[in-house]
Write a structure and sequence with these properties.
Layout lengths: L6 H21 L9 H14 L2 H14 L12 H13 L3 H24 L4 H13 L1 H6 L6 H17 L5 H17 L7 H10 L5 H25 L16 H13 L14 H35 L14 H17 L3 H35 L10 H13 L5 E3 L3 H8 L2 E3 L12 E5 L22 E6 L3 E6 L2
Length: 484
């Protein structure tokens, strides 16, 4: 890798990483949004520590099957809960320290992205793109979430780099590629799509026969298969419950998803003034690069398209985080298209244009750094705000549930996994009045209307047969006991 790693490149990369690490650290809050995916991960982490993973899946299966629509799978892949485990053992359920796992893997991703970019771009172009992602407000904000997205981004990007550089490499390199694919799929189910770029070159050289196939793929498959078998002996399944989400699938949703994901990469520049205009420009440059490098890049483009296709047919949408893994190569392809355009300019103008383009993207990087820095300063001035399920009003409600309800009680709440994480009570969510009779208590968030719950204004008029007694109230929550 001597052609990729130079002393000058590493010097500037380390500077970018130091700034990115400080920026991320000072942007972390002591709370979390009311998305309870994080609670699902934490419940699985806690179950590993107490070694009752099967019981945890049983509780979550109740939540998934009883809710009006599934809030998540019965079990996420166990990789991210396992990564959280050491931090949880030392610091407990502390959101600030748990988020440091994401910061660490984001910095590791930036290194892997630089390595991948250097297989296509110059040193200065690669560093520019690393800085763009390091300081992009959406990625800085993403590190304030306890989710598997960033660790998965690291392992998937590094796996792509190893597969790209592994053509002709030795068996150790290919074995490690299998480990990386395993780790990606151990973090997110879609990690299995990394087999697409692994097999694509083999399809192109199919005439070479089985010997070439065995040489290129067998070590990677062996490494992956062994690790997958070992984890299946230790950790119970539950990812099959993802298929229950397809109950929400329909043709209009498919068309909406197609249009949604075609425009979704523009969100990368969402917080930059006029940044939305950058996406069409980059998309045109990607299209320009396709004819020039289609054979070389077929594997990576196939991975990107298969990832997009997987989420287009998936009924739920959760923003940019679903397509993090394909953004790195999108940017690399765009910059290759930019080089093609500049190479076709008159020789006398190329130097001036190249300097102007580099200056423009440097300005974009500085704008990203400025916006993210301002947000970090504001966050520290606010004392790392405690929001969502960790705030004082939520804790008051949890305390009431823990102390005033029977441990066997079933609670109806808009974020059932978060409620079980903090109270130990089984819970489910519904927007349907007819389901409320299955709960012993109903907890309503007074500011969220009918988002994952029956509206607080409509609850008392829900059904004549439903008898409710208000037993708790604060500025944020209402708790009703369902009378028999």
């Amino acid at each position: 890798m001597k052609d990729i790693l130079t002393r000058r490149g590493w010097f500037f990369l380390v500077i970018i990483l130091i700034v990115a690490g400080l920026l991320a650290f000072f942007s972390l809050t002591r709370g979390h949004p009311w998305w309870d995916d994080f609670a699902g991960y934490m419940l699985q982490t806690r179950s590993i520590l107490s070694w009752n993973m099967g019981q945890e899946i049983q509780h979550n299966t109740f939540t998934v099957e009883t809710s009006s629509y599934p809030p998540g799978p019965a079990a996420y892949p166990w990789g991210f809960p396992l990564l959280l485990l050491p931090v949880y053992v030392i610091f407990g359920l502390n959101p600030l320290t748990l988020k440091l796992v994401g910061v660490f893997f984001f910095l590791a991703f930036l290194i892997s992205f630089y390595l991948l970019a250097r297989t296509r771009l110059s040193e200065s172009q690669s560093l520019l793109l690393v800085a763009l992602l390091a300081y992009a407000p959406v990625f800085v904000a993403a590190q304030d979430l306890i989710l598997s997205d960033i660790p998965f981004l690291f392992f998937s990007t590094l796996a792509l780099f190893f597969m790209e550089r592994g053509k002709g490499a030795g068996i150790a390199w290919r074995l490690f590629s299998g480990f990386l694919i395993f780790m990606a799929s151990f973090l997110r189910t879609t990690g299995i799509l990394l087999f697409v770029p692994l097999f694509m070159p083999i399809i192109l050289i199919a005439r070479s026969g089985w010997q070439e196939f065995a040489k290129r793929v067998a070590p990677t498959m062996l490494s992956f298969g062994l690790l997958y078998f070992l984890q299946s002996l230790i950790f119970p399944g539950g990812q099959g419950s993802y298929f229950s989400h397809f109950s929400m699938f329909n043709l209009p949703r498919l068309i909406e998803n197609l249009l949604y994901y075609l425009w979704l990469p523009a969100w990368l520049f969402d917080r930059i003034p006029a940044g939305v205009a950058l996406y069409p420009l980059l998309l045109i440059l990607v299209i320009i690069s396709l004819p020039a490098f289609w054979r070389r890049d077929l594997s990576l483009h196939a991975y990107g398209l298969s990832t997009l296709l997987a989420f287009i047919v998936w009924p739920e949408r959760q923003g940019l985080r679903f397509i993090y893994p394909i953004l790195p190569f999108f940017l690399i392809s765009a910059f290759e298209g930019l080089s093609i355009v500049m190479d076709r300019l008159p020789q006398a103008k190329q130097g001036t244009v190249r300097n102007g383009v580099f200056g423009f993207w440097s300005l974009v990087v500085l704008v990203c750094l400025g916006i993210s820095s301002i947000a970090a300063v504001q966050n520290m001035a606010a004392g790392r705000d405690i929001n969502g399920p960790f705030d004082q009003y939520s804790n008051q409600m949890y305390e009431y549930i823990r102390e005033q309800t029977d441990p066997a009680s079933v609670i109806v709440f808009m974020r059932p996994r978060a409620l079980r994480l903090f109270t130990g009570r089984d819970a489910f969510m519904t927007e349907d009045c007819s389901d409320l009779s299955q709960g012993d208590y109903i907890v309503l968030h007074q500011k969220l209307e009918a988002n994952g719950q029956v509206s607080p204004q409509a609850i008392l008029a829900c059904s004549p047969a439903l008898r409710l007694e208000e037993t708790f109230r604060n500025k944020r929550f209402l708790v009703y006991h369902r009378l028999q």
